[in-house]
Amino acid sequence: MTTADTQTHAISQNPFNGEHIAEYAFDSALMLEAAVAQGNAAFKQWRKTEIAKRAALLINLAAELREASEDIARMITREMGKPVKQARAEVEKSAGLCEWYAKNGPAMLAPEPTTVDNGEAHIHYRPSGMILAIMPWNFPIWQILRGAVPALIAGNTFLLKPAPNVMGSSYLVKQAALKAGFPVGAFGVINVGTPAVAQLIADPRVVAVTVTGSVRAGGAIAELAGKALKKCVLELGGSDPFIVLNDADLDEAVNAAVAGRYQNTGQVCAAAKRLIIEEGVLDAFTTKFVAATQALVIGDPQDEATYIGPMARFDLRDELDKQVQDTLAEGATLLLGGEKIAGNGNFYAPTILSNVTPEMTAFRQELFGPVAAITVARDADHAVELANDSDFGLSATIFTADLALAEQMTSELETGGVFINGYSASDPRVAFGGVKKSGYGRELSHFGLREFCNVQTVWSNRK
After folding, report:
1. Does the active-site annotation cover 453?
2. 183-212 pLDDT, tens per residue?
């Protein structure tokens, strides 16, 4: 039995100064049963609610998020260390998500007529039931709502198990949903340990599971869902390649690499982790990239000027440092950083490793923190080969002036998304998800909206 299995509280600790914020006792068996029963009862009514009403409540939720934006942003910053300007942007992006699905969701859920012999047929997108969501801490609002909003407008209910260090942020989202007018149980939050998750997945009132987390956690949950014959969507992180070819605009590429690697203190699944640089521009790119990284402001995440805050958890900083030291021992070159920053805060110096080769730790493993690894490529074909030499396949970036070549490369890259002359991002208008050990299923766009729908064929008047 692991320590996680024996814990009885979720603990929130400020990673900037080590301050103890709060402890949240795990829900009792009675409390958990009440939450599941509420979600199940709410579904029976919510599925019958007109879609126009569901959309109107999403508009209300967007307004509530904006009204509480400063409180939510400050809570995010205290709980997981995100610089406050980035936390505000996360809240605003989440409000925009609500509005986008309110506007576009109804049409995506409309019945689709299909021509068939001897009759009429329509494809309907019916709600499935209560969705269990197991969500991480790195985007405490956006990550929750990009799963919840499509599920809710489709007529499902949403039962959230947040990461234990961001319970406060999750409760603020629930409060906003209730104030927006969503019925009790439509958006539920539970605080439980690992054994209760297995119990929930087996519960017949839970119809599907969506997970964002580690490969290990995703595999364990997928196994449980498989035994229960329940669908799951897995977003399990990545080690995204960021390819820069000889003809790229280096200033644009460097700016994108800095933002793509160091935003949210490098704690992003779809991030520029493996910088694969064609040898003709390796020296010029590296010089510019090191200078730009050195210019980033590190400090108190509540300070408006801060770009790099503390890492969210002390154990993850230790793990990241071990990965860096292992890579250096394997022969990589340290260009910048490579150490914990002394003091009470959970800071890790923005780090750049060069001469990283495919057998090294920084190339093979996901680096979830402010560390970039530079690998040299002989040409575009070699860059694609290096990019695909990974267990992960979330997204990739290509910087080049040759758009025809970039399009050709996209067809060969083994990733769920490719970004040409811009760094990885998520947006409600396009699907988000990966292949290989980055998971399966899609979030956002109409693909994410329909993931947890019963796609029902209705065939009338067949002779």
Report:
1. no
2. 999 999 999 999 999 999 999 999 999 999
